[in-house]
User: Fold this.
Amino acid sequence: MARKEIYAALEIADHEVRLVVGEMFDSRLNILRVERTAGGGVEKKEIKDEKTVVAAIRKAAADASAALGCRIERVLLAIPSKGVKRVNQKVNVTIDDGTRTVRLFHIQSGYNKALTYRAGDDLVLVNAGCIKYKVNGIASRKLPLGENCESFVMDLDLLYADKKTVYDYARCVELANLEILDICLDAYAMAQEAAVFEQAIDRYIVQVDLSRSSTVLTLFAHGRLVRCIQVDEGYAHWYETLQERFHLRDAACFRLLQNLFSADPQQNGDNVIYIESIDGQQVQVTAADVYACCMERMHAWVRTVSETCELIVRGGTTRYVVSGEGMDIQVLGELMKEFNAPAAGYVPQLIGAREAAFTTTVGMIYNWKEIQQIRKDSRISVNHNEMEESVESINKVAHDGEGGFTKKLRNILLSDR
Assistant:
């Protein structure tokens, strides 16, 4: 059986744990399973209740494992872009074996040498990326395997994050009895999926990651991640008045924002769009109620982001790319024209993960696959033996049993005679 490349990516959000399991096949990612397990224990990207987070991770992994028929043993873990520091490294690699030909171990040698840099006691290396190779005076992002030269230069960015945050997130995964395959900054993973690095070659890109309790703004320029800042206001601030007035749960408020009102006040009538019984009292909410309680705060959020990035916009051609769970709120798409520079939302288009909440997790899998060109790590996320047994069982049912559609159809036709 050909080796299957199955990877699981885990993101610990402020109110849930997201797990995406996918198979890489011929550079394409096929989504096998997604899990969104309600939880908590996270405030402003910091772990506050470890037990709650660990329980949510365990449930997400167990549910996905049961559905796939094999245990998930390792995950790619998203790390919040908190206290991010970028360090550029240029490593000169000499080909001293007499061949004058670039081989993989030469690239691995330069890569490992760059990783030895230490940025500080309170920082931990999370990503090494944006790699360029300069061979015979020509720069390229493509691996220079087989090129003839006496030496070449590797230019790469090392991205560090707050040490305590990284350790706290990693500890939760390990307490859930999972191994960490690799870690990745959430902003970096999101940029991988949304093709932000490519867009930032000749302009500034401000990536806007909108979550429930915060917004992370990440600046990209010259194809590199430059800086991350966090604004302590997420989409929950938009429905705060609505929640206080009608005593609704967060999930109900998000659903109302997500689908049931428009940015045009004329389209929000007094027809009831939501009914719920709370403590014996019937609560009725109209589209006009949602608009009146939420719309002005949404406009204010756009102004806050624009004001925060004003100096960047003045400095040159700028574009906003908005994603994260908040981009699943459809009416937000109508507000893109209010930013002080061109703006567009991004939602993954993979079957099975067509929600902006999965942008980071999907991007982590692509990032892992990209860095494997150098690292050549053969580990996958699931138990290999169990995975093979599961595939063989499925194939057997499809071939011999009632699992095949053709056989089912034939049996139906024969039974009607």
Observations:
- The longest strand covers residues 123-135.
- The two ends are 40 Å apart (CA to CA).
- The longest helix spans residues 287-308.
